[in-house]
Amino acid sequence: MDFDFSSEQMLLRQTVRKFVDDEILPHIAEWDAGGAFDPAIWKRLADLGLMGVCIPEKYGGSGMDYNSLAIVCEELERGDTAFRTAVSVHTGLNSMSLLQWGTEEQKEQFLVPQAKGEKIGAFGLTEPGAGSDVAALSTTAKREGDEYVLNGQKTWISLCDAADHFIVFAYTDKSLKHKGISAFIVERTREGFSSKAIKGKYGIRSGNTGELFFEDVRIPASNRLGEEGEGFKIAMASLDNGRFTVAAGACGLLMACIEESVKYCQTRSTFGKPIGEHQLVQQMIAKMEAGFQMSRLLVYRAGEMKNKGIRNTRETSLAKWQACDFANQAADDAVQIHGAYGYSDEYPVARFLRNSKAPVIYEGTREIHTLMQADYVLGKREDRKLNRMLPAWPFED
Ligand SMILES: Cc1cc2nc3c(=O)[nH]c(=O)nc-3n(C[C@H](O)[C@H](O)[C@H](O)COP(=O)(O)OP(=O)(O)OC[C@H]3O[C@@H](n4cnc5c(N)ncnc54)[C@H](O)[C@@H]3O)c2cc1C
């Protein structure tokens, strides 16, 4: 095991940190209050090579390893969860799925422009009647000659209005239950497709989340990702990558909670001393640090397994569950440390707390990950090699 970051990874971290400090933090309170971030940020992410950091260079990416994606997610979420969520769905849930499951033609057509940041990708699994229970989805894709016709609705989809391409899951044969689900690449420009943002979100307010509608949307059969009936497997494999980015982002939120709390501890005094000298405040700081360090180890272990081409569903689920719970608790404690001032938008910690909740819900709720971990330990679940694995790193030419 190697616990050191490479010089390339350290440079990447410095670059993203500077970008966050200079171009996100000065504006985030305003973007959060206004319900959207400046779309010019997309171009900046692309210019910095952050839209395809772990996608091979031959497909338009930066060709770095999977832990470099974790570094990007950590540093972006130190700025705000909305930016990490954008990279999670664009790279983790969409581009990495194209890399794993796409044909060479699909990679050329969809992955290359996404990795370069010329197009944005997103992931449509959740429906009004199907969240944790994926097999309850009701969107259908009917084969007609060389086309599929999609009908249905998705909800709570990140980047619903911003993305150009969506990976969408639909039943091609409902009688087969989850083995009748297939995956499709759907472009926003298809007739019959529309999207609508959800207003009044509790957190990640500068991020775009909402509904997708498919009314007789016709797509070529060549837009099917994987074989008919492989959709459930593709969705779960995609989540292995998405959850990894969510867990890494939670480490960034933990860093932000520590930074802000330490600053406040040093400036606020009660009973004749800085609050950082009260043991009960120290306890909250110590818990944040423990959560941060433990989460990081879990995240980078999962990343190392990805680098080696080893299936990591179990390890990624544990990292996602624990890191998001630690971040949620740390954000709650950060507000507590700030007292009444934490309960306003004068300090960023209230935003941290609001932002920390969605990751405990999306990409597998806390309860779903608890059940998964219990099943592994009880011998009721095991990970087997998939027919198509994410390529190991270093990538082959
Ligand atoms: C900000 C945000 C962004 C999102 N982005 C995306 C996206 O880009 N793409 C996408 O497809 N989805 C997205 N989602 C949706 C998200 O993945 C779902 O909300 C999540 O899977 C949970 O589904 P649900 O909300 O329907 O809750 P439900 O599945 O209805 O669960 C409700 C409650 O019941 C519990 N529960 C359910 N089943 C069990 C069980 N078997 N045992 C114990 N408890 C159980 C859950 O843990 C939860 O507490 C996003 C959600 C949010 C909040």
TrEMBL record:
**A GO term for molecular function:** acyl-CoA dehydrogenase activity
The Acyl-CoA dehydrogenase/oxidase C-terminal domain extends over 229-374
What keywords sit in the KW lines? FAD, Flavoprotein, Oxidoreductase
Presence of keyword Flavoprotein: yes
- Protein name (record): Acyl-CoA dehydrogenase
Organism from which the protein derives:
Planococcus massiliensis
Q: Which family does it belong to?
A: Belongs to the acyl-CoA dehydrogenase family.
List residues of the Acyl-CoA oxidase/dehydrogenase middle domain. Answer: 122-217
Q: Record's SUPFAM superfamilies?
A: Acyl-CoA dehydrogenase C-terminal domain-like, Acyl-CoA dehydrogenase NM domain-like
Question: Gene3D superfamilies under this entry?
Answer: Acyl-CoA dehydrogenase/oxidase, N-terminal domain, Butyryl-CoA Dehydrogenase, subunit A, domain 2, Butyryl-CoA Dehydrogenase, subunit A, domain 3
